[in-house]
Write a structure and sequence with these properties.
By secondary structure, the chain is an alpha/beta fold. It has one domain: 3-Layer(aba) Sandwich (Rossmann fold). The chain is 27% helix and 25% strand. The chain has nine helices and 15 strands. The mean pLDDT is 96.
Length: 298
């Protein structure tokens, strides 16, 4: 696969009629000096910036799914409080001097946070021109060396470098062939690399999956929700030699909720209004398992 040709082709996505005005607004931002704080809120401050321009530009780029960010007084209250997931996982990884990838990186919130660890390199993969534009908006101020690729997990095995750590958070359940995706992650790793993965799961000690009929929590592209033992089998079949459960959690309104920055539905609309342990379709409500996968210990 020729990734250079693919990159050139996907750059054309930035001229789509719904994206081009966002790029124009981005290109009109001033170049100033900014202070950056990489904490639960990725915070950017400047005394001389046009704050109305910042607000209007950020609003153009809605919906904001991941965050939160604060840009020169504009608080982007994203649908997901991504700091909760990041802080849950933070004690389980050390990225110092490592080559790191984030698959399905959205607007790069986690990548910005990962800079604290002094990794050797940070690469985000997400084939979304909107999320790439949101990333470019934040990075206009942060001025990081993060590389954002308009590529997907299927391109990992052809990428120009292998990674020491790959994050894949909230992607696996969107794939109709989860074992094939896990094999792509495996091929993207260096010999002793690791994957930190999170996905939906259902309770049970057996090796089975929920296969939603048409949607799960109103999300149409959810194909399989496994038990943890079924997930382990998928990972071993993909070639990983070690499967370690790091954390489990239930998604609730403290982490995912409707805000003025998404202009649409969120978790409260996806659950049964009479029983929040079930989705509107009657399936078990979303809960997540976080695992570490090891390619080779030798």
């Amino acid at each position: 696969m020729n990734l250079q040709e693919l990159r050139k082709d996907r750059e054309k996505w930035m001229t789509w009629k719904n994206i081009a005005p966002l790029r124009d607004a981005l290109n009109n931002l001033e170049n100033e000096s900014y202070s950056v704080e990489l904490s639960d809120i990725v915070k950017i401050e400047s005394d001389s910036i046009d704050k109305e321009q910042i607000l209007s530009t950020a609003k153009l780029m809605m919906p904001w799914r991941k965050g939160p960010f604060e840009v020169c007084g504009t608080f982007i209250d994203s649908e997901w409080k991504s700091n909760i997931k990041y802080n849950l996982l933070r004690k389980h990884f050390n990225l110092n001097n490592k080559r790191v990838a984030d698959i399905g990186c959205n607007n790069g919130y986690y990548l910005f946070r990962m800079q604290e660890d002094n990794p050797k390199s940070l690469v985000g993969f997400d084939p979304s021109p909107l999320y790439k534009t949101q990333f470019d908006f934040i990075n206009h101020f942060v001025k990081s060396d993060i590389v954002y690729e308009l590529l997907g997990v299927e391109h990992l095995e052809f990428y120009e470098e292998k990674f020491d750590t790959i994050f894949c958070l909230g992607v696996l359940y969107h794939r109709s062939d989860p074992v094939a995706m896990l094999k792509s992650l495996f091929k993207g790793l260096d010999k002793k690399g690791e994957v930190i993965l999170d996905t939906f799961y259902i309770d049970g000690d057996d090796e089975s999956c929920l296969c939603p009929k048409s949607s799960y929590s109103k999300i149409p592209n959810i194909y399989f929700v496994p038990t943890i033992n079924a997930l382990k089998n998928w990972c071993l079949r993909a070639g990983f030699i070690d499967f370690e459960v790091l954390e489990t959690s239930k998604t609730d309104a403290s982490e995912q909720r409707k805000t003025e920055w998404i202009d649409g539905q969120s978790l409260e609309d996806f659950l049964d209004p009479k029983d929040n342990t079930k989705t509107v379709e009657g399936y078990p409500a979303p809960q997540r398992v976080y695992v570490r996968l090891i390619k080779d210990k030798k």
